Amino acid sequence: MAEQNSPARVADDGRVPTVIADDLHIVYRVHGGGGRGTATAALRRIVRREPSSRVREVHAVRGVSFVAYHGEAIGLIGTNGSGKSTLLRAIAGLLPAERGRVFTHGQPSLLGVNAALMNDLTGERNVILGGLAMGMTREQVRQRYQGIVEFSGINDKGDFISLPMRTYSSGMAARLRFAIAVAKDHEVLMIDEALATGDKKFQRRSEARIRELRSEAGTVFLVSHNNKSIRDTCDRVLWLEKGELIMDGPTEQVLKAYEEETGK
Ligand SMILES: Nc1ncnc2c1ncn2[C@@H]1O[C@H](COP(=O)(O)OP(=O)(O)OP(=O)(O)O)[C@@H](O)[C@H]1O
Questions:
Q1: Which of 63, 181, 219, 260 could bridge 111 with an S-S bond, Cβ 3.0-4.6 Å?
Q2: What is the pLDDT of residues 43-58, one digit of tens each?
Q3: Whole-angstrom Cα distance, residue 180 to residue 138?
Q4: For ligand 1, mutation pick of 24, 57, 82 (most atoms within 8 Å of CB)
C-alpha cells in the first residue's frame, strides 16, 4: 500500500518530493491459471470438470525507483503490458507492494477512463456526487458546477447534462469524468490514457488544464501512447519495459530514445 506520509520535507535543492518509489515490485496472482492453452486441452478440462488449482504469478513491476516532485508533470511510456497502469495503481494505493515501498504526500487521485460514474443518474447528479466523492464541500461543488459542465463540453450541442449518463457516447462520458476530476486541485493527479478520449478541441483543453494543475504546484502523472500529448504536457518521462524502469529523464531525451527503439 502507498504509505500516506510526508516522504521528506524538502530536498537539498529546495524541491518538495510528492511520490517516492523505492525498489517497488508488484506481483499479480491469477487463480485458475495454468494448463496448456490449446483448445483441446481447455475442452478436456471443461468436460472433465477439472478445477484448475494453479496460481500463476505475473511480475508486472520490477524494482522501480524514482522520486517525483511538486510542480512536475511526468509521462509514463512503454509498450503494451509494460506495467504503466500497474505502477499508477500501486502509487494510488490500490495494489500492495510485493517488495519495496511507495511513499506519497497526500492522497493521490487516479483518473482512469474507467473511473466510476453512475450510468442511471443524470450528468448533473454525477457532477455533484463526483465532486462530493472527491472531497469537495457542497459549496465548492455549487461554485464549480458551471465550470465543470462548460469544460466537459457536454452541453455544446443541447441540454445533455440533464439526461442519464447511459445516453452519452463513450467520448462524452469520458469527457465528463475528466472534467469532474480536474475540477479539484490535486496534490498528486494520475491520468491513465484520459487524453486519448475526446476530440482535438477537448484534448487541447485537457492539456491546458494539466499545465494549470502543475502550476498550482501539484504533481501530474500521465500514461499515454500518444507521444504528442506527452511532449505537450510533460517535462519528464519514465520509460517502462517488462516492468523495469529503463529510462528516466527530460521528455525530449527519453521520447527520442523510445521512438528510435520502437519506431513509434
Ligand atoms: N488484474 C491483473 N491480473 C493479472 N495480470 C495483470 C492484471 N493487470 C495487468 N496484468 C499484467 O501485468 C502486466 C502489466 O500490465 P499493465 O496493464 O500495467 O501494462 P500497461 O503498460 O499499462 O499496458 P497498456 O499500454 O497495454 O495499457 C501485463 O503483463 C498484464 O498482463
A1: 181
A2: 787 788 766 667 889 9
A3: 14
A4: 82
